[in-house]
Amino acid sequence: GGQAKWVRMKICPTRNETTFIAEDLNKRVTVCFFNGSTWGTVSLLSSDTGGLNDRPEDIAYEQLSSEALCVYWKGTSSSFGFRTYNGAVFSSEQSLSSPFSTECDFVTLYPRPSSDQILLLAADGIAGNPLKAALWDGSAFGAWVTMVNSLVSNNEECYSAAFESQTGRGVAVYSETGQNQPRYRTLTGSAWSAQASLPTIGAVAKWIRLAADPTSNSILFAALDSSDDLNANVWDGTSWGTNTELATDATTSDRRQF
Fold this sequence. Notes:
Blueprint: E1 4-11, E2 18-24, E3 29-34, E4 43-46, E5 57-61, E6 68-74, E7 79-85, E8 94-96, E9 104-111, E10 118-124, E11 131-136, E12 145-148, E13 159-163, E14 170-174, E15 183-188, E16 191-192, E17 196-197, E18 205-212, E19 219-225, E20 230-235, E21 244-247
């Protein structure tokens, strides 16, 4: 359908299977599954995401059932579509109502370990509008939850999430407009904590990534801010430590250079 603009690949936890999801220059979202030797049929998920600058689609695997979940934005109907894949059958499309007044610019899925739950974080299509969360329980999505009313950007992925490997508790970090302290919430079961803050990183975070230690409850945080500085911190399962500044001039903050 066109040259790929955005690409994501995920690996099935139990099968020799890799998933490829892409958005092309014609704003079409397609998905394809590799079974260890050959690629299957390419399936069209969305014919128009509404734009090319952002990534309103993602795919993740349930960690118990190994079923894949695809979520994507449909610009023609201003709604989310989603499908599942069990290794043999790709489900028909189902709809997820949009919590946004315009469109969605970023979608990211985070599977909970030893569970069929998958956390969906979605950014509004307008800067300074909300970041929303919804939890997939293996068969359906729960209600939308507002993480922050004013996410700093819709053009950078200024949020991330990860799950503690031992407890399964989730941690989501995101950037609030005008705030140099990244905000965070924890997810226990399906309940979110009140908002709290990390130490200041000196400027507003434009790109955020979290990565969980597979053998403990530690989660590594990194953020590139609007001053082109890169900072890191570690969640120890209870609290954040002291920031470490890794770089003071990443040359630009309009892309994730880490």
